[in-house]
Amino acid sequence: MKTCPQCGAEQALDAKFCTKCGYQFTMTxxxxxxxxxxxxxxxxxxxxQPGPTPASAxxxxxxxxxxxxxxxxxxxxxLVAGFKHPGRPVxxxxxxxGLLSIGLIGLFNMIAVIRPLANTVNSVGSSLSSSVxxxxxxxxxxxxxxxxxxxFGTGFRMLILFIVIGIALATSAWLGKRVISGDTSGYLExxxxxxxxxxxxxxxxxxxxxxxxxxxxxxxxxILLLIGAEYALQxxxxxxxxxxxxxxxxxxxxxxxxxxxxxxGIVNIILFMLFGSSLFGMLSNL
Length: 286
Fold this sequence. Notes:
membrane; transmembrane helix; mainly alpha; transmembrane; DUF6574; DUF6574 domain-containing protein; elongated; 7 helices; two-stranded antiparallel ribbon
């Protein structure tokens, strides 16, 4: 029984209204006992602190992003090993590392050669524009913009030329190893081994690119010296790879290397004829 707080009449525990005065009882939550006056038990005072939040489900990692991170770490570890001991190739975690390194060497070499030219053209254009002023200023700026566009167009062709030459040298080394040493590794594996052996050339090309970004035409002699050192390393890698385990069956390895070198030279001459004429034509029009 419970007592009506208004008239004091005894009422049943589940009564919603007092049968004597009509007082409406406040309903209590299930399982909570009312006080003797029929009122619900007072709630606990709030401490002002937020209650515990339900634990959120752990986020699923992006599978493609994780693969890309693992590939990047593997490439860097492989490249550092090539810097330390280029003559002792290690197994790469991806067969595409060779093409990646050859592409980076071509990109850095292109930046090293083209960027000083672009810096010089921009500097000369700014000097002429400020000196002539007036009516001819806009014409000088337009000519400078046209020259810059021509330089970057030349840079794209030069990038392709550097990459194709690198692939041609790597292909020659792979063929030499197959013919002379009887190796049966695949083409991409051969390119990756060659790229491992020329890892120091990638470092030199990166240094040349930094010099090209920070200097003008005065830095070109040093840049060309670094590029020459790169190709010297590539020639060394070619002979090291081709003569890994020479076998003396059929034609002597010295003659085979001579033939492969001649064919590679002819291929490079053809590449320079295809790309070089357009490159020098665009540069001469600046």
